[in-house]
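Pipeline run #58 for the internal structure catalog. This entry was flagged by the ingest filter as a single-chain record with no existing model, so it goes straight to prediction. Upstream metadata was stripped on purpose; only the residue string is passed forward. Reviewer on rotation: M.T. Logging verbosity set to normal.
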Amino acid sequence: MRMEAKDGSFGFDFRATYTELEADNSFTYRMEDGRMCKVDFTETEGGTKMDIHFDPENMNPVELQQAGWQAILNNFKAYVESI
């Protein structure tokens, strides 16, 4: 897939291999560089909670990476709530 800023100022191609899938609960994937990511879904009163657990890369501080993932999730949440 392609991840890109709305204004087109930055973007990158993203490839991964899904390694586990538990329908309606979670999925796990391995990125091209070997890092793993697991996404868990939990039903709540207000909807669905999504937790992402990822192996950080070594080029950027963990806090910056967490902020980037959170920004993506916030944008996704705003999109889903608008449709």
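catalog note: The chain has one helix and six strands.
catalog note: The chain has a mean pLDDT of 92.
status: ready for reviewer M.T.
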